[in-house]
Amino acid sequence: MAETTTATPTALPKGFRGAEQGWPHLDRIPHPPRRVPLLGDVLGADRRTPLQDTLRYARQLGPIFRRRAFGKEFVFVWGADLVADMADESRFAKHVGLGVANLRPVAGDGLFTAYNHEPNWQLAHDVLAPGFSREAMAGYHPMMLSVAERLTDSWDRELAAGRSVDVPGDMTKLTLETISRTGFGHDFGSFERDRPHPFVTAMVGTLSYAQRLNSVPSPLAPLLLRTATRRNEADIAYLNRTVDEMVRTRREASGSGAGDLLDRMLDTTHAETGERLSPENVRRQVITFLVAGHETTSGSLSFALHYLARHPEIAARARAEVDQVWGDTETPGYDQVAKLRYVRRVLDESLRLWPTAPAYAREATRDTELAGVHPMRRGAWALILTPMLHRDPEVWGADAEEFDPDRFDAKAVRSRAPHTFKPFGTGARACIGRQFALHEATLVLGLLLRRYELRPDPAYQLRVTERLTLMPEDLRLHLDRRTATAAPAPVTVPDEVRSEPRCPVHGTDD
Ligand code: HEM
After folding, report:
1. Measured from the CB, is residue 357 less than 6 Å from ligand 1?
2. Which of 477, 455, 442 minimizes the C-alpha distance to 350?
3. Whose Cα sits closest to atom 1 in ligand 1?
4. Contact 384, 359 (CB under 8 A)
5. What are φ and ψ of residue 471, in 5° steps?
6. Is the pTM value of this prediction over 0.90?
7. Which CATH class is domain 124-352+424-497?
8. For 309-366, what is each residue's pLDDT tens digit?
9. In whole angstroms, how far apart are CA 42 and each of 34, 84, 215, 230, 243?
10. Closest to 451 in 3D by CA, of 183, 206, 232, 165
11. Catalytic: 431?
């Protein structure tokens, strides 16, 4: 009698999988000239700017290329057809590698760093996704507004004192307070401090350390990074203590979160299995959400403010929209934010040029061929370089390096191929907080444009700091209080631009 067997794929080897193992035709993929024996493609590399170094190689080598560093070979992909192919969820999935894998000691099997096969990913995704529904978002809106008012109070004080404002510093205060108060009912008191909250310092420390681990040969890391490793352990311990304290406070005041993310993490059981998150997993999720929920949004707001200050005509158009849509409403309602279509385009265009989580990794879930050209074995993976995808002249035109929000008007968006704009990743593992970030950032840009004129420092040249995420370095802006606010009658918004309830995770592209 014939035996019936269900083919279960064999487990892939644990640890780093070099490109030699998974790409049988690596010879078809270019690499930089002048490889240094043992060290690899490290000439001219700066350990503080690995992403920007890689972008330079991308420009030289084209839509798919590889780099070798300390015996590890990686493949990078940014050509639109290749990225679109890798978005096919029937053949590819998220790969937890490099920087993301380096965050496992702090975020464990939390949503961002979980391996696809870990049961806690699906459990946490199902339990937490309703926390990003339209209803949930509308519930966070008043708190988002109140945090934004703390920011404008603080900027009013700086303006009165004749000082410029520290844009990334203040955006980080704003976004940390927003996620911590809306999600966890916790006030870090960021606006009452002159220096960043120690939570932010510890977080930046762990992100920078995770990035640094990629730039040293792994066996030597404990030796070469001895002091940094000790500091990283102290940072992780601090993050754990802060989060444990937040959880303890909530448990003591059970039910006080009115169904926020922390309530969901602690009390919600899975609708089908009845399971709930373990205490250890809750700790991982709280850290994940506090970090993922503010660092990237802060960078996006900072880049957007930089471009608005540099392009007064774009700022004027965005401001006119705010005046028209919000009129003299003191506190814009939830639905009035989604109607700021031009402001949202400014944000999208900033995320195009500087997607603040600038890469994500995809692996083949079975033996396949990438775009019909590059054979890949199951488990082979590549890093998608979104800043290059977003600057591909074939998709975005010869002026792809220019800041132009009209690239995101409805007609232009419809005319582009899918999967050409990917700041929030792709597929099942795309960003769960996408709508949260977009709502928060659009609201804040609207409030700031309505209240201030932004003046750049003429000598400032954009420099980008990397700590896995991207942030404009040392960006300060001068403010002027607007004198007259035009407040015309509310406008009717055409159907095509009305905000539609969307799945919090999957965008139109997915
Ligand atoms: C502009 C702001 C943001 C950007 C650019 C961004 C970008 C991303 C990207 C690219 C991924 C996919 C990573 C991968 O494939 O490895 C991701 C995942 C994730 N993001 Fe965001 N994000 C933002 C805001 C947020 C916010 C506000 C939250 C929470 C409130 C959040 C929570 C998460 C989580 C938990 C994941 C993992 C999802 C999963 O694997 O199931 N993000 N984000």
Report:
1. yes
2. 442
3. 297
4. yes
5. -155, 140
6. yes
7. mainly alpha
8. 999 999 999 999 999 999 989 899 999 999 999 999 999 999 999 999 999 999 999 9
9. 9, 29, 9, 26, 39
10. 165
11. yes
